[in-house]
Amino acid sequence: xxxxxxxxxxxxxxxxxxxxxxxxxxxxxxxxxxxxxxxxxxxxxxxxxxxxxxxxxxxxxxxxxxxxxxxxxxxxxxxxxxxxxxxxxxxxxxxxxxxxxxxxxxxxxxxxxxxxxxxxxxxxxxxxxxxxxxxxxxxxxxxxxxxxxxxxxxxxxxxxxxxxxxxxxxxxxxxxxxxxxxxxxxxxxxxxxxxxxxxxxxxxxxxxxxxxxxxxxxxxxxxxxxxxxxxxxxxxxxxxxxxxxxxxxxxxxxxxxxxxxxxxxxxxxxxxxxxxx
Length: 277
Ligand code: AMP
Ligand code: MN
Ligand code: MN
Ligand code: MN
What we know:
Elements: E1 4-5, H1 19-28, E2 33-36, H2 45-55, E3 58-69, E4 72-79, H3 86-96, H4 99-112, H5 118-123, H6 134-143, H7 150-156, H8 173-182, E5 186-189, H9 199-211, E6 216-221, H10 226-239, E7 242-246
Parallel strand pairs: 1-2, 2-3, 5-6, 6-7
Antiparallel strand pairs: 3-4, 4-5
Helix pairs in contact: 1-2
Bound molecules: adenosine monophosphate and manganese (II) ion (3 copies).
The site of adenosine monophosphate has 10 residues, from helix 6 and helix 7.
């Protein structure tokens, strides 16, 4: 059976390894079909593709777009995109702008909470000045011993109601799906089990996404609990979505589920890659 991983990050967004190093890491973990899906950025695709081909892995060009839907931040993955598409690139550039100001505001709030110099601290982890992420702040808070781990950071800081939470208005669902489709890609709702949406709201998101031309949801992801694999397999089938699978890898030792240990998709779904090869 093909081992497929369609959700990974490099240091072009909030991962720690360079795109080519992620390709090597994925290959070493036994991946046959691999997508790099950096947040709001396609700058790593070229190097990732080159190294994937070198390793004999099939490469899928991808991106993970931050959107705001019903006041919630949701992530939409685009797969099989033409990363040179001008409209997609302009949309992503627009989505990235504002991250730096947000970073300063996060740091200001953390200073009030007794943690000085967090902007400079987080910046040490930033590989792409255009893409300062909460993850970079999280790594700094672990480094200075304020928190024991990255998940611990997101329980105590940087999330709604906690110090360092700065609401941000991202792209719209319609824009993100249209950028992806305009670039010849397939739109996928990333880790649907992670959003704080009621069942009704989640249904409305799925309906709207489908109406806009969205085709798939992630079912098996490092961001789901094992219980959620079956839940989202069933939902994929009832909404007529294809199913995707990806580790959401950011760094060796940092992920909830190791690259190599993520289970395959349940047998009852149609994989998003069913007609690719
Ligand atoms: P941002 O796009 O700057 O808002 O940062 C979002 C990133 O923070 C996600 O892509 C994850 O990498 C990370 N993140 C968010 N929530 C959590 C969590 N509960 N545990 C671990 N990482 C998280
Ligand atoms: Mn991330
Ligand atoms: Mn995500
Ligand atoms: Mn991700």
